[in-house]
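Q: I'm writing a short methods note and want an example of a predicted protein-small molecule complex. Could you take the sequence and the SMILES for zinc ion and return the bound structure as tokens? Please keep the output block clean; save any remarks for afterwards.
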Amino acid sequence: MNKLDYCYHTHTYRCGHASGEDEDYVKSAIKIGIKRFGFSDHAMLPGIKQVHSRGDYSLLDDYLASTHHLKEKYKDTIAIKVGLEAEYSERFIDYYKDLLSSKAIDFLILGQHFNFDKSDNPKYIKNFRDDIEELYSYADYLIRGMRSGLFKYVAHPDLFVTMFKKWNKDCEIVSKMICEEAVKNHIPLEINIHAKKYWKDGYERLIYPCEEFWKIAGEYQVEVVAGYDAHHPSEFDNDIDFVFELIEKYQLNHLEDYTI
Ligand SMILES: [Zn+2]
Ligand SMILES: [Zn+2]
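A: Understood, no commentary inside the block.
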């Protein structure tokens, strides 16, 4: 059965590029049979303003209030956890630890879209073109994040392919670095559903999930999860055969009962 009954990668309108009501995401997920669900909006970060990439820090309390409310309201129907999708950077470690230890959030997933060690308003990784130095920098931060123990899994670990038009030797090296660390740290890697389905017109770079990456992930037998990365409630549908084809083709170790 080509269905997922869990999804821990769900955004809200607060990030500035998603839309719909929080409750409608939950209702849509229930409708397609999801039993274990997580909100993981792009982390609001103190002192950082990235208008169309993440919600302002001032929206954090509202996000937490709304998602915790839904967690309670739907507790007999679906197990909801409250989380954030966040970048690794040493400057945010204490902030993340506080959010987790105070139980404001239940979990973090690692989505390394930006490198905040370089700037308060860094360029999105996918906007670096053919930049090998940036590729290795991405891998370095991703690996530090994996080693930090702060994150439950790595969202779209193959995001870096969007820097390139063609797969190359460096892509292969970096993929192996990431997969090796995933195995060492027992941290699952996510097959991301959003990009391939919704970034359609004229996208002329490689896109994720990237076959070459997942072939390597199969060889390393990394633990694999899938995530809708929903930016609208309607993105929860069962038209996701490509995920299961990838799992089948590369004999990926999919954690079907994945639970946070
Ligand atoms: Zn997003
Ligand atoms: Zn996401």
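A: Remarks, as requested: The longest strand covers residues 79-86. Residues 6-254 form a domain with the TIM Barrel fold (CATH 3.20.20.140).
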